[in-house]
Amino acid sequence: MENTNSLAPPRRIAAVIACLLVLVGCNPHMYDEVPAVHDAKRAEIVGSWLGFDRTEVTLQPDGKAVISLLDGQEFDFDDRWRLSGTGGWELTDERTGWNDGQHVQLTLTSRMSSATRTPDPAERLDPSSERGPAPETYRWTFELQRDDKKQLMLYFFFGDPDSRSTYVLERK
Length: 172
Prior knowledge:
Layout: H1 10-23, H2 42-45, E1 47-50, E2 56-59, E3 64-71, E4 81-92, E5 103-116, E6 138-146, E7 152-158, E8 165-171
Antiparallel strand pairs: 1-2, 1-8, 2-3, 3-4, 4-5, 5-6, 6-7, 7-8
């Protein structure tokens, strides 16, 4: 007679765990290392950066910034507001983002206008959720990454940070 209380073979256990992870929506890469930059210079950051749907951010040598149509990061992106105005920026080594490398902190201190981003056709909208007004001030933390040509890219995560969707700004 076969013992029905015995443990399942290891492969069956692994398959069950994998199915459970899929069912709960767990991203197996959510805790992977985020590429870190440790050698960026202020001169590499200064200039105009372009992003999604006419986003432009100009980082001036004196630490001032001009921001045009920049979306919120992480869960704030879901509110679909886009901010324009002026503020300041700094290159920092403090651990303020998702990696242990350098970051650009961008702060909007004087909002000139705000707009609403048109939802993507694939974007699920909850009609019962109320969107708050766009903030008067806001702070973004940009991660830094180098492309194949060793040029810097600025980016932040949007939506659920665990999904690792990136909002990228590239040099103009």
